[in-house]
Structures are given as C-alpha cells and as structure tokens.
Amino acid sequence: MKFILPYLKKYKKDIVWACLTISLAAIASLWQPKLLQQVVQAIADDKMGQISSLGVELIVIALVGLVAGALNTMFAARIAMGVAADIRLNEYQKIQQFSYGNIEQFSAGNLVVRLTNDVQQVQNMVMAIFQTVLRIPIIFIGALVLALMTLPNLWWVILVMVILVIAISAGVFKPMGKFFGKIQGLIDKTNNLAKENLQGARVVKSFNQSEQEAKRFNVAADSLNTINIKIGYLFGLLMPAFMLVGQLAIAVSVWYVGSHVVADPKMLGGLTSFVNYLMQIMIAIVNGGFMMTFAARAFVSVGRIEEVMQTQPDLTFKKDAPAVKLAGSVAFKQVSFTYPGDSQEVLHDISFSVDPGEMIGIVGATGSGKSTVAQLIARLFDPSKGSVEVGGVDLRDVNEQSLRQAVAYVQQRAMLFSGTIADNLRQGKRDAKLADMRKAGSIAQAAEFVEKYPDSYEHQVEERSANFSGGQKQRLSIARGVIGQPAILILDDSTSALDAQSEKRVQAALATDLPRTTKFIIAEKISSVIKADRIFVMADGHLVAEGSHHALLKTSPVYQEIYNTQKAQEVDVDD
Ligand SMILES: Nc1ncnc2c1ncn2[C@@H]1O[C@H](COP(=O)(O)OP(=O)(O)OP(=O)(O)O)[C@@H](O)[C@H]1O
Questions:
Q1: C-beta of residue 489 within 8 angstroms of C-beta of residue 519
Q2: Could you tell me the pLDDT band of residue 569, with boundaries at 50, 70 and 90?
Q3: Minimal-distance CA residue to ligand 1 atom 16
Q4: I want to staple 42 with a disulfide (CB 3.0 to 4.6 A). Which of 50, 96, 277, 538 is the partner?
C-alpha cells in the first residue's frame, strides 16, 4: 500500500467522489429492506393507501443506488486505470535507465510480464478498493445494526451465522490465496514457453519439434490446469456452504418468528428485512474474504514492480559530464572483464590503443571475447578492472550523448524495430533527410533493394522485421550505423549474411565515404579483415597478437592456424 499511496495523490477528487458514491449506493441497499418491511406491514395492516407512496420511495431509492453504483464504477475505473498507467510509465522509464547487464539479470520476458500482467493486478486491486472494499464495512456494520434493531431477539442467529461464515471463509480463502500466488508464476511460464515457441517457429518446424514443443507446453499448461481445477473445487464448495448457512439462518428465523408472530404481529414485516440484512452481512464477509485473496495476489505483483523500481542501474552516466565531440581514438588500459552475475573472467588484462581513422580487424575463435571488447567500447558494460577511453576520455566520465554520437555499434544480430525503414535509420541520426538515408543506404548496399520499393525508405518494417531477409536486415542495420557519420564504427560480424561481393562493396564504400571514421571489423573470416591497418587476434579472452595480415602470418601461431583452417576450407582469402 505504501508503494501505491503516492500514485493515488493525483486522483484526490476522484477518490472523494468514489467514496461518496459507494457510500450512497451502500446506504440505498441498506434502506431498501426497511421500505419492503413497511410494504409488508402495510399489507398485513390492510393499509393499501400507503403502498403506492412506499412503492415510489422504493423506486427512487433503487434508482439512487443504481446511479450511485454506476458513477462509482466510473470513478473507481478512472483512479485504477490512471494509477496503473502512471506506474507502467514510471516502471518503463526506470527500465530505460537499466544497463544491458540489468536487463539480462531480470531477462527481457520477465520485465515484460512485470510491465503488463503485474501492473494489471495492481489496477484490479485499486479498482476493487474503490468499488468493493469501501462498501464492505458500511454494509457489514449497517446491516448488523439494522438487523439487531429489527429483530433484537434473533441476535444469536446473526452471531452463529457470522461465526460459521468466517470459519468457512478462513478455511477456503487461505488455500485459495496460495493457489492464486502459484498461478502467477505458472502464467509466466506458459507465456514464456508460448513466446519462445512462436518466435522460434522456423526452428521448431524445420527440426520437426512441434510434438516435442507441444509436450513441453502441455506440462506447464497441465500444472496451471490442476491449480485452476483445485480453485474450482474450492469455489464449488464455497457457494453451497454459504448457501447452506444462509438458508439455515433463514429457516431458524422463520421458525422463531412463526412461533412468536401471534403475540407480536409486527414481527412478520420485520422478518423480510431481517432476512435481507442477514444475506447482506453474509455477502459482506464473503466479499471481504475474496478481497483478501485478491490483495494477496496483487501484493505479489506490487513486490515484483517494487523490485524493478528499487534496482539501481549498474551503469550510469555522469550528469555533469560536458558534451564534447569525441575524437575516434580508442584505448584499453589493462582491461579485465567479468559479466555481471558471473564468476568467470572473460577478458584478461587487455591493452591497446587505436588512432582516429584506423581500420582494425578483430579475429579469434568463437567465444574468445571479440564482441565483449566491442560492448566495452560502446559502454554497454564497464570493465571490471582497468579503463576504456574514447577520444582520450575515460568512459566512466563521458557524456552519454557525446558517446552515442561518437560510437555506432552494429551488432551481430541485426535488430530492426517495427515502423518504417526511415524510422529505423533515424535512430542513427535523428534529423536524417532523404539524402542522408540514400547515402547510408548506398554505403551499406541497402539502397539497391530499398529504392525498388514504391514507398522506398517509407517502406514498413513488420514486427521482428519478418518481411526482410537476414542479409537485408544486416544491410539496414549497417545503414543505421553509418548514417550519423560516427567517429567510431564497430561492425560486429555484421556482414556475415552478405555475399562476398556485397561485403567487398560495403568495405570499399566505408573506406571512401567514411575515411576519418575509426573502424572495428569483427569477423570470423580473415578475408573480411585482410585489408585492415591492424588485426587484433583474440584467444580465450586474451589479446594474443596484433599487426597487419602479412606480419601476423609470420609472427602469430594462432593467426596462422585460423588462416590455414580457412584456407583448407577453401575460403576465398583474397591475399
Ligand atoms: N551476456 C553474457 N553473459 C555472460 N557471459 C557471456 C555473455 N556474453 C558472452 N558471454 C561469454 O563471454 C565469452 C566471450 O563471448 P563473446 O561474445 O565476446 O565472444 P566472441 O568472440 O564474440 O564469440 P563469437 O565469435 O561466437 O561471437 C564467452 O565465453 C561467452 O560465453
């Protein structure tokens, strides 16, 4: 609750209105039995003249209750949806501040559930507070007092009924609350399985894994089903048990009134409202039980959202760092690195320095640390030991905007966002004009297919860029990388899906059009880096050699081995 209170402040007026309308609706439903009692009494006393005015009163009260109830739903919905939207926005903004490491720590799927499903649970709870919870004490106390005032001799019927209803509620709602808690986790699991399966639909189909996947999904869905069935059983028990208690209370009341009505004829009218109040008391207790299980589920979600909000980004940029135009030099000073949450160091004591405009190739076996080096230059992580400098500035002291303008990192897995091609290119240069896009498209060899579309750069990119081939996606992400003419461009295996001819054309265009840009070309194939000024050779997280292709062939056994293996595989090494 402490977490939600600040969010409620904004909706003070709606809260006042919600409280007023819910009170009015509750009072109306307490009033109705009294009027009914008077109607019955009028019939018993043969005072038919009173019936029509009582009828009008009944209709007015019912209408007041109806309108108040409808207005209350409107105010409660406004508060609940407003609070949920504010929490969602704050949580989203918080996630935006997260480092890559923070996001990996939670996992992207988990964060999505915390942003959607968990916020929905909080929204449901806020709605319930202003629609139901406030009504419970008014109805409970009001109906109790009015029932006692109506037939005071039957106080013991009320007491026994309340004790029985509370006992049943405690017995049923406690396990139900536990089951609801488990449901949240199981929904996460089935969602994740379905998401993974659908995203990997091609792999599932090509490896004929549909049956296997269906079995995996069935196991999770069965657990969810089992819990839902258990909840169903509890509900199945709950309603008849309450009904039994209610009917017994009514039967006892009728029997009691029946045996005393001759002595006190007014008891007959009282019986109708007494029975009604008994039901209202029972429903108030049952609703209280429901609200408690509901709240238990919502509190789990509040905890999960709070966890996100309280997580400190493990990588922040100095707010007072001056914005400068960073030069294209890069220096690693005794850099070692361990991924957050891992214990194994993946880069060991790496030092090098690169001058502006140099073209650096990075080669090495898979898992040798090439991409990790790239991620440290782009400051997706900070080194565990040592320092990384760009343009002579330690990245821990750099201005974020300056770094993002200076370094363009085209990642191994091309990732485009839904929207248009132009929207994606503008991520690399906010105010990019058509001419900039054409230039970038031509460097990345993307113009040849983009400009064939009738809508050219306004062509739509579907969700997960499903309407582009792997090579097209790579070309577009290279175009996004070069469009801002960065001081440093990192191509992390970004041409792996391009044919040899296109790759050569990209490299030639980079050399002519971005001559002053420092380029890091990470590649599996030596042919991709053969023209680099220097090639860095990585092995098991160490920088084991550096030099030109010819020099390395003479001096580096690791490089020779890579070269010979690729040559043996008849990879076209254009020597
Ligand atoms: N996000 C991560 N969390 C934990 N460990 C990671 C992460 N990314 C990479 N690693 C580990 O760090 C080491 C270096 O990985 P890196 O991706 O830098 O290698 P690479 O040389 O680029 O490989 P490849 O050529 O296959 O892309 C590997 O052992 C890898 O398992």
A1: yes
A2: low
A3: 369
A4: 50
Taking phi over 0 as left and psi of -120 to 50 as alpha, with beta for the rest, 46 belongs to left
- Annotation: CATH topology of 358-378+409-568: Rossmann fold (3.40.50)
- pTM for this entry: 0.71
ipTM: 0.96
CATH numeric code, 5-310: 1.20.1560.10
Q: What would the pLDDT profile of 81-96 be if each residue is shown by its tens digit?
A: 999 999 999 999 999 9
DSSP state of 427: T
If DSSP states are collapsed to H, E and C, what string results for 149-169?
A: HHCHHHHHHHHHHHHHHHHHH
> So where are the chain's domains?
5-310, 358-378+409-568
Q: Going by CA atoms, what residue is nearest to atom 18 of ligand 1?
A: 369
Q: Which residues line ligand 1 (CB under 6 A)?
A: 104, 339, 342, 346, 364, 366-372, 412
**What is the Cβ-side half-sphere exposure of residue 148, based on CA atoms within 13 angstroms?**
10
Distance 541 CA to ligand 1 centre (A): 9
Protein residue whose Cα sits closest to atom 7 of ligand 1: 339
Give 508-555 pLDDT, tens digit per residue.
Answer: 999 999 999 999 999 988 888 998 999 999 999 999 999 999 999 999
> Ligand 1 centroid to 496 CA: how many Å?
17
With contact defined as beta carbons under 8 Å apart, do 360 and 532 qualify? yes
Measured in Å, residue 340 CA sits from the centre of ligand 1 at: 13
